[in-house]
Specification:
Elements (H helix, E strand, L loop, with lengths): L1 E6 L5 E7 L2 E8 L12 H23 L8 E7 L3 H18 L3 E5 H7 L16 E6 L4 E8 L2 E7 L5 H11 L7 H8 L22 H17 L3 H31 L4 E5 L6 H14 L2 E3 L11 H12 L15
Helix pairs in contact: 1-2, 3-9, 4-6, 4-7, 5-7, 6-7, 7-8
The structure holds 5'-O-[(R)-(carboxyoxy)(hydroxy)phosphoryl]adenosine (KG4) and zinc ion.
Length: 334
């Protein structure tokens, strides 16, 4: 079974090839064009996807040593994401499936982030058994997902406002760091003291979360530091990064612990772009050791947006016979 996966939901054009469940190639073209604007500009993203998609797919097939005619199915991200960006991948995948007369497989991007745990690439690592809890943390989503099987997932908690990645990115912007700020906050936080300042822990009922209060409190904190002296912000930046990161991690892990207990689970995973955060990875492992959980953290390459997870999602759909009609449309808020 040979599945091509295509991802185009935001600002990465990506393609991957899976041969009998094993990843043979995983190609990503990023989009530098957004950097000057301090965030992703949807129309520029769509145009860059149009330029990138043919060479990226060609390169993924070439690296995998696979000819188009050998494909068993074409998987693509149906949503959620930027509609113009999604359209490029969806139209390309539909055309390819039609021309090759192979099944089309419509993959949910957020579900695919969870399936990053199941990317097999020849490097042996443990795969979660079912059921397990997944903390999905990306630029657009923050969810606690009860995963019963690869195609049976239930969201049992989510953010009521900003996503965790947004909190990182907006906090970074306040500190004058480039977009996307998450990885820079991560890097600077390693030199800072997370206990130097205190940010409030929001009180949201149940298993839900909230990050907009953290963002506002952080903005006020930075303003106060700036008001102290002109050079204060420069000096305090690593500490401020550490404080912001800790506040986000504390909330995520408090809810994770609560969800694990409420559902009597012993296996936990993280996925999505924010799961690349070194502080979160370490804190989850430590919490898991204390609580006696088995912890699953995908390699960095499968945490941020990639097409390997889309190909894996496609393979599960193909196995289950859940193919998509050729007139399927992408959905911004799937
Ligand atoms: O999953 P992803 O690549 O795209 C979406 O589906 O949103 O997630 C992107 C998010 C951005 O907010 C980015 O700042 C954040 O993941 N991110 C990080 C790190 N690497 C990426 N946040 C904190 N620490 C990191 N190391
Ligand atoms: Zn994503």
């Amino acid at each position: 079974m040979i599945v091509l996966g295509i991802e185009s939901s935001c600002d990465e054009t990506a393609a991957a090839v899976l041969v009998d469940g094993v990843l043979r190639s995983n190609v990503i073209a990023g989009q530098e064009v957004h950097r000057t604007w301090g965030g992703v500009v949807p129309e520029l993203a769509s145009r860059a996807h149009q330029e990138n998609i043919v060479p990226v797919v060609d390169e993924a097939l070439r690296q995998a040593g696979v000819a188009r005619q050998q494909l068993s199915g074409v998987a693509f991200t149906q949503g959620p994401g930027l509609i113009g960006a999604l359209l490029v991948g969806a139209c390309f995948a539909r055309s390819m499936a039609q021309a090759l007369k192979v099944p089309l497989l419509a993959v949910d991007h957020v579900q695919a982030h969870v399936l990053a745990h199941f990317v097999r690439d020849g490097d042996p690592r443990p795969v979660p058994g079912f059921p397990f809890l997944n903390l999905t943390v990306s630029g657009g989503h923050t969810q606690l997902v009860l995963v019963r099987s690869p195609l049976d997932m239930e969201v049992i908690g989510s953010t009521t406002d900003d996503a965790a990645g947004e909190a990182f990115d907006k906090g970074a912007k306040v500190l004058g760091l480039a977009y996307p700020g998450g990885p820079l906050v991560d890097k600077l936080a390693r030199e800072g003291d997370p206990r130097r300042y205190k940010l409030p822990m929001p009180s949201v009922p149940g298993l839900d979360m909230s990050f907009s209060g953290v963002k506002t409190a952080f903005l006020n904190l930075v303003r106060n530091v700036e008001a102290e002296a002109p050079e204060a912000l420069e000096r305090e930046r690593p500490h401020l990064c550490a404080v912001l990161q800790q506040a986000i991690i504390d909330q995520l892990l408090a809810r994770t612990r609560q969800a694990m207990k409420a559902h009597g689970l012993a296996r936990v995973g993280i996925a999505g772009g924010v799961s690349a955060n070194s502080g979160l990875r370490q804190a989850l492992v430590e919490l898991g050791e204390r609580e006696g959980w088995r912890t699953f953290i995908p390699p960095l390459a499968y945490c941020t947006d990639n097409a390997a997870m889309i190909a894996v999602g496609g393979a599960f759909l193909l196995e289950a016979g859940r193919t998509a009609p050729l007139d399927i449309v992408p959905k911004a808020s799937l």
